[in-house]
Amino acid sequence: QAIAEHTVALALALGRHLIKANKRAHDFDFRLNELVGFNFNGKTVGIVGLGDIGLAVANIFKGLGCKVIGHDIQPPKNVIDIEMTELGELLRRSDIISLHVPLTEQTRHIINREAISMMKPNVMLINTSRGGLIDTTAILDALENGKIGYLGLDVYEFEKGLFFQDHEHDKHKDVLLKKLIAYPNVLITPHQAFLTREA
Predict the structure, then answer these.
(1) Rounded mean pLDDT of 111-123?
(2) Where are the strands (E) in 109-185, listed by range?
(3) Which residue of 6, 26, 92, 174 lies most exposed, with the fewest beta carbons within 10 A?
(4) Rounded-to-10 torsion of CA 153, 155, 159, 160
(5) pTM for the structure as a whole
């Protein structure tokens, strides 16, 4: 539940430009320009991986009025209100895609250039699972050309030795990560999705 709630929190924060709005409010700038969001109600959410976390994410999105489609190599039984699809179809149909699979040789870079090419323009991609599921260089190109409209990450492909420590004063910072966080439509948290009192 902790990871599922964080996943949806990233999506909502991106969809309603909450980071930008909060920063402006702290500067006493209360203009609404560049803050136009979108309703989640009625959107199609694709969940890749329907284990306990993926199913918990699906339930929250269904509560927001989203249509949920899912892909899993071992589809769960007796799932209600989730349409099971092939991965390619999920990528083509989803307005929001959320990743919830383990990192294996088969899932490494499951989001690569080919996968991105299948997605809708301006798609939202959320990853609270493992950083290696996404080809970071491919995602940077997709952000640059506008294919990826929103990116929420709690994990990063090259986070080992980086996350869980303070690197603010390092002279040399991770180049790809610096490029990612420079985009206003990218929200990155430091692998904290699990971090609740209850969990």
Answers:
(1) 98
(2) 123-127, 148-153
(3) 26
(4) 180
(5) 0.96
